[in-house]
Amino acid sequence: MKLTKNKIATSLLVALCAAGFPLSAMAAEDSEAMKKAEVLYKQLNDKNQKKVADAYREVIRTEPDNSKAHHRLGAVLATMDQYDTAILECKQSVKLDPKSYLPHVIMGQVYANQGKWADAVKELDQAVALKPDSYRAWMDLGVVHARTNNMDEAIRVYGKAAQLKPNDPAAHLNLGVFLGNKGEHKKAIEELNTAIKLEDGKNFVTYLNLGNVYGDAKEDDKAIEAFKTSLRLNGGNALSHSGLGWAYERKGEMTQAIKEQKIAMKLAPTFPQPVYRYAAVLAAQGKNNEAETEFKKAINMKAKDPFAYVEYSKFLKSQNREEEAKKLLQSVQIAKEGNGKAGN
Hints:
This protein is an all-alpha fold. Among the domains are: 1-114, Tetratricopeptide repeat domain (Serine Threonine Protein Phosphatase 5, Tetratricopeptide repeat, Alpha Horseshoe), CATH 1.25.40.10; 270-344, Serine Threonine Protein Phosphatase 5, Tetratricopeptide repeat, CATH 1.25.40. The chain has helices at 12-18, 32-42, 49-62, 67-79, 83-96, 102-113, 117-130, 135-147, 151-164, 169-181, 185-198, 204-216, 220-233, 238-250, 254-267, 272-284, 288-299, 306-318, 322-342. The longest helix has 21 residues, at 322-342. The chain starts with 11 loop residues before the first helix and ends with a helix.
């Protein structure tokens, strides 16, 4: 699923076309108005959204029971951020054709854009129940579980997607990431290497994630190799520089570790990760005052990273400041629970 403007499916129609949904195949019984709308639908872009929506409204005016026209209009309205009306159109489509899975896909993505995660899961679960071989629907469901940090479900869903389309690297990449997050490093490495093979080794993101898994598995030399490959493919990638610095730190190569974290901080000055990793290097060198300054900087940045709090708490514990460490982690948990409730 393409992510744009921090939304799950702003480019919904692009995703549907890429997934092979039948946009071009026109049923013999389609009216001339519907055929015209379908042609416009294939050409949908930011400039002609209203024109496409109006074409489907014209179809619905004369064919109110055309379920496909309703969910097509819902999809177009979703790209225009007219979410409430998009949902109404999709619900009407479901009412007219309860066996169609596409309205549920669209509603799932709209609810996800609104942060209504439970509703999004419900609709996408219904979509895959109606069409179990829909790779796109399984992938969209995986994104929702990923965004809500439902690790086991994300692994299950991405695993199903990978079975349906074994030659598509996206499912293997996402599956590898979540297997790695769960600590199943061997399986994660297998999935990520499968993705690399399918991508002909051209995607820096996959090597970045491979480096992270190798690092978590304490295979530091392989992590360094993966991060360096990621940087060869995209030298302006702050995450890979930070990952490389992290791997160097684990090996005790502090000069290289500092160098990489400083590069990452320069490339992404609002990103906490290289800041708290730089702080960890300073702490390892016994520069505790400087380290604490950097840790505080990391947790006070606008972009929040829970690992910044975890690493800072480790530092506090190392300084025999157990109570401060405990309060810090408690504050993070309270904030996390609050965000979770807000998203329901």
